[in-house]
Structures are given as C-alpha cells and as structure tokens.
Amino acid sequence: MKAYEIGDTSKGIGLRLVDRPALKPGFGQVVIKVRATGLNARDLSILKGGLMGKSVPSTRIPLMDVAGDVLLVGPGVSRVKVSDRVTMTHYWKWLDGAWDVSMREEDYSNTLDGFLAEQALVQADPLVKIPDSVTYEDASTIPSAGLTAWNAVIEAGHTKPGYTVLTIGTGGVSMFGLQWAKMMGARVIITSSSDAKLEKMKALGADVAINYRTTPNWSQAVLDATNGRGADVVLNNVGMGEMEQCLMACASGGKVMYIGANAVTPDRKDAPPTALTRFPNLIIKDLTIKGIIVGSRRMFEDLLAAMATNNIKPIIDRVYAFDQVHDAIAYMQSGDKIGKIVIRVG
Prior knowledge:
Layout: E1 2-5, E2 16-19, E3 29-38, H1 41-47, E4 50-51, E5 54-55, E6 67-73, E7 85-87, E8 119-123, E9 128-129, H2 136-139, H3 142-156, E10 164-168, H4 172-183, E11 187-192, H5 195-203, E12 208-211, H6 218-225, E13 231-236, H7 243-248, E14 250-258, H8 280-284, E15 288-291, H9 297-309, E16 316-321, H10 325-334, E17 340-344
Helix pairs in contact: 3-4
C-alpha cells in the first residue's frame, strides 16, 4: 500500500510518499481501506516533527481523521464486519465515561500510525458506523473538529434554546460549533479578522459577526450585541492569548471551553499569554474554564445520529487528491480556509 510518512523535519515539513506492505489485523483489530482523511491544527505540529514537546518518529504516518471501509477483520471482532463504512476518534481508548489522561498514550497519528495512507490498522472497539446519508468526505471532517465542537457545545456546554454561543475564528471547530449551536436553537456570535469570512459566516447562520482586528476590544462588542449580558458558552480555539477577552465576554454562569492551545492563523501567532489582570471577573460572574479534548465513542455515536436526523452537512472548503497533500498543507498554513480541508484517498 501507499502511505505518507512524516519524513525529515529538520528543515520544516518533509512529508514523503512510501510503499509499505499490506496490513493484517491481529486479535481485536481491523484493517480499514481509507477513503478520506483531512487536516487539523494538531496535524501541523506533528508534520513538523513533534507534539507538546515530544518528538514523533520520521516513519510515523500522520493525520488523525478517517473515514473508510472495513477491509479485513481480525479474530475476536464482532462490533463491525467487512464492508462496513466506519470512522473513529484518534484517542481510541475513550469509549464512554470520563476522560483519563492515560488515554493519550494510545493516539493515532501521534503514538500510533495515522490515516494518510491507503490502509490503516486499528482497534475495532472505537469504530463508529457512518450513516448512509453521510458521505466519506463529510465523515472524514468529524472525528476531531466535529466531535470537539460537539463536546464543547452539547456535552460540556449544555447549550439550549435561547443561549448565546461565541466561537473564535472560522476553522473547523468554529464551523461545527456554529452548526451544533444553531441545531440547539442558540444564537451564535463569531469572530474573524476577515470581513469576507464574516460575511460568509452570516450567510451560514451566524447571528453576529465581529472583526477582532478592527475591533480589538471585541469582548465589549459581544456584550453590546447581547444587551450587556454576554455569551453563555465560549469556544476559545486560539489559546491563552485570547483568554481574558473570552472571560470578559461571558454571561453570568458562562463557560469558556479551552480548545486551542496555540493559534494557527498567521495573524494570531504572536498573541501574548493573558495576564488575567481582571481575574476577579471569573469569580463575580461565576464562570467556568474547561479543557475540551475531542470526545468519546458514545459522544461520536450521538453526534452522527443527530447529524443524520437533522441533515447537517459539514462545511468543507476544499477537497484534494491523495497526490496533492503538499498543496493541502500549504493551503491550511495560509489561514485562508473556512471550515475543513479534506484529502480524498481512495
């Protein structure tokens, strides 16, 4: 099979195409024929050779999103069968219940080979069947960004009709956050440095759009747009540099979902960490800051059921062929995208 490896990262991204033997499943495993995968902010760090201070081997197959067909089934597998259309989250041990940090040790694309390949060897337990109404390309956008936003807006945020949800930026998590929030009957405020992107967001259902470049004190703009009340749920997708304004934009009892540890787009990369100089706002407004780390298999099943029932289609910016991976990465790094970038594998 053909696969991409991270390669030599001494001079930047050194992705290389290689030939590898066809895969065989062991006990409790299956081989997936990969149909589509895609790019996330975390993938860029791994493609550069490391994640959160730890290096990743040059032979690692990157990318953590996947949609495909079950090609081979190993002994002891009853959850899926050959030809099932499936997807999964990259932290395969999180099936239900609470997250435990030990689960990060088994992580597709980081500690295990990911999905930028024609085939993938995975555990059967985390696999989730793709509804008939959801395409491979659509399904490949969900495991990271879609599920993270679901956890933030639905599971942890408990969004309900009448809530205001604020999401920072126009990346994949923000797009799904917009969709899940509107599905729940919430009002959505979104920020960007691009007026053109903001107009597109309004066309996609955003109720209020704020340009944080021309409105540096954007938290006040959020308060103004909500008659002084603020947002009930805030998706901080860009890191600590925006945390203080996220807190200032909250309603009483509001929740800040801390999702993005680092900014991805070029215009945010130099944002300094917040000093939380107005930290008492956290107390006087009874606010919560919660880290969000993707979601469990059970959450994923709930997400896909809701997606099929409500006929929700992911917002895909561009689709690239398997041999256009370098172009896809360059486009991701440009910061021009709105929504998800998909790579069609087979």
